[in-house]
Amino acid sequence: MILELRNVSYRYRKGALALEDVSIGVGEGQSVGLVGESGSGKSTIVRLMLALAKPTAGEVLFDGEPITPATMRRFRASVQTVFQDPYSSLDPRQNIESIVAEPLRSLGIAKGSEARAMVAASLASVGIAADSLARYPHAFSGGQRQRIAIARATVCHPRLLLADEPVSALDVTTRIQVIDLLAELRESAGLAILMVSHDLSAVAALCDETVVLNSGRVVESGTTSTILAAPREEYTRQLVAAVPRLPAP
Ligand SMILES: Nc1ncnc2c1ncn2[C@@H]1O[C@H](COP(=O)(O)OP(=O)(O)OP(=O)(O)O)[C@@H](O)[C@H]1O
């Protein structure tokens, strides 16, 4: 496993348990969808996976080991993220070259002409024209911004992309294009993906495995096709039924 939560529980200060005994992991080249309604604990899992919070109980493991200051840089280079809102995630004062080069700078991977070549290659891989380097985020549509965010996340050739509701802020046509792009990167770069979504159709289009979260607990997990065809839990059946484009179970 590249990244794994093992028997993790989490309690916010003064709150009830937001996660209870959750185990979820992503292996090399795997694509896993994490689905659940609002409040089920998806964002909390992302925070724990990014080492932004520590579990109340259980472990967060990167390559089978707890994340420590000594492994943090390797962790950051291996696990990159894309967030929901491409309008707030790109700094409006920086041009596209500077935005996409950020992981190269902060991780000390490359600079100067080497960095510029990596940025250009990354932008090309997400279908953004090479003459975009000197432009600013406001010149791009929501879908293009999300492509730029994906270029930034993949410029350092991570092993795992953590995508937190990456298409929820986009219109339906753009959603499909961005999902197709993620599928392409998964194929061509062998990128593992954990996609968090409340939208099962997005997960069905991208992820081989699905984990269903309800009230901070994993209620069902397995191959996406099995879960869609024969959901075991009433909660999952309701999620499946809420997707109009999927066949009813
Ligand atoms: N800062 C906080 N303090 C206290 N409780 C919190 C905090 N953040 C989240 N919670 C609680 O933890 C639980 C899980 O929330 P979380 O945000 O992880 O769910 P989610 O599935 O990501 O929801 P959404 O899809 O709306 O983002 C909820 O009951 C929520 O009310």
Automatic annotation (TrEMBL):
Cited Pfam families: ABC_tran
- Using the record's annotation, list all stretches that form the ABC transporter domain: 3-240
Q: Which chain positions lie within coiled-coil regions?
A: none
UniProt record, GO biological process: transmembrane transport
PROSITE patterns from the UniProt entry: ABC_TRANSPORTER_1 (PS00211), ABC_TRANSPORTER_2 (PS50893)
Does the keyword section mention ATP-binding? yes
User: Per UniProt, which keywords does this protein have?
Assistant: ATP-binding, Nucleotide-binding, Transport
Which Gene3D superfamilies does this UniProt record tie to the protein? P-loop containing nucleotide triphosphate hydrolases (3.40.50.300)
Asked whether the keyword Iron-sulfur is assigned, the reply is: no
* A molecular function GO annotation: ATP hydrolysis activity
Which InterPro entries does this chain map to? AAA+_ATPase, ABC_transp_ATP-bind, ABC_transporter-like_ATP-bd, ABC_transporter-like_CS, P-loop_NTPase
Q: Do you know which SUPFAM superfamilies this protein is assigned to?
A: P-loop containing nucleoside triphosphate hydrolases
Q: Which domain of life is it from?
A: Bacteria
Family named by the database record: Belongs to the ABC transporter superfamily.
Q: What is this protein called?
A: ABC transporter family protein
